[in-house]
Amino acid sequence: MRDKQGRFVKGHIHTKEALKKIGKASKGRKPTPKQLQALKKMWGFYKGKKIPQITGDKHPAWKGDKASQSSIHSWVKRIMGTPNVCDFCGKISDNKVGMHWSNKDHKYKRDLNDWQRLCASCHKQYDYDNKLIQPKGFKPNIV
């Protein structure tokens, strides 16, 4: 909708009749070759594919080792896949639920040798044994 001077009115909601009119008017319309070219450019030639020129450390938003824990976990899972065998107890999981990628030293570097496959129970025990996490309800002695 436009006002008296012909300017677009922000926030205007079309009536159902107006929407039907718009739908009928645009039904069967095919974009011109120029419009198709613009759409391809907008959608991207590499839609759904990796763009080699800006993948990984070449991407302007690449953070390297300064990325968050969750993003580094996602990176490891993307490169190494979902674990299905525990490195400690040898437990095998068919549905891969309860298997984790565990960072050995909790420094979360982008070093794939610094990761291990653990089931949930071994992961928790590993973190307790290496004092990386504390048991629930733990209160340190304050002297």
Question: What is the fold's blueprint, element by element?
Answer:
Elements lengths: L15 H11 L6 H11 L25 H12 L18 E5 L11 E5 H10 L14
Antiparallel strand pairs: 1-2
| Average pLDDT metric | 84
Strand content: 5-15%
- Please tally the β strands and state the result: 2
Radius of gyration: 27 Å
Gross morphology = elongated
Spatial order of strands in the largest sheet: 1-2
Description:
The protein has a two-stranded antiparallel ribbon with strand order 1-2. It has 143 residues and is mainly α. The chain has a domain at 63-129. It is elongated, with a radius of gyration of 27 Å. It has four helices and two strands. It has helices at 16-26, 33-43, 69-80, 120-129; strands spanning 99-103, 115-119. The model has no long low-confidence stretch (mean pLDDT 84). Helix content is 31%, strand content 7%.
Brief sketch in words of this structure:
The protein is mainly α. The chain has helices at residues 16-26, 33-43, 69-80, 120-129, and strands spanning 99-103, 115-119.
How would you describe this structure in keywords?
mainly alpha, 143 residues, two-stranded antiparallel sheet, 7% strand, 4 helices
